[in-house]
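Can't paste images in this forum, so I'm doing it all in text. The chain is below; anyone willing to post the predicted structure tokens underneath?
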Amino acid sequence: MIADPASAAAALDPVRARLLAELREPASASALAGRLGVPRQRVNYHLRLLEKHGLVEVAGTRVWGGLTERQLVASAAGYVVSPEALGAAAGGPRPGGDRLSAAYVVALAARVVAEVGGMARNAVRGRKRLPVYGLDAAVRFRSPADRAAFAEELTAAVGGLVSKYHDESAPDGRWQRLMVAVHPVPKGVDPGAPEPPAPEAPAGPEAPGPPVAADASGTPTDEERP
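Text version of the structure:
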């Protein structure tokens, strides 16, 4: 997760973005220069910037032709730029927003990235596991009427579950967010295709039971605060 504006700018440069993709496995500047068809001096310049922002790290060294060559590797299996990187310009869902608008769904997703990303960073630092839960499914509707009926039933079902489990007076309770979104699948995308393997999560103690993330805000604990 990239939340720092300068780090985001560094990662989004086309050459540096390509270098990050190539550095899923350790490689040297000379090897990368050959793959990208870019002078090694230019590659070294970009690698120094990526290293400065913690996006790549030294994986080892090797002696080549009497010179010691560094092997670098990306510091993560993949990167997501958090809306935090935009500062005050970052958008968020407005109370009473149009639930049928794409802008509202995107704003909800951006809030998940910002909040969960920030808490996850601190959980990793503390070698803890952040208690979250995600559910992903695909459905093909016969008609717009069926889609509307599905949305109505889903709203009722979620409302019933929230009413059943919500306890505002519980002394040890904690607010959670629940975000549900339904959107069309982009053309050319097969929702049944297998997803690429997810990067391994850092080792840490298991947290009891996965709470679901209701649409009500809560205050992060100290170890989870972004």
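Residues 102-125 form the longest helix (24 residues). The beta strands are 56-64, 67-74.
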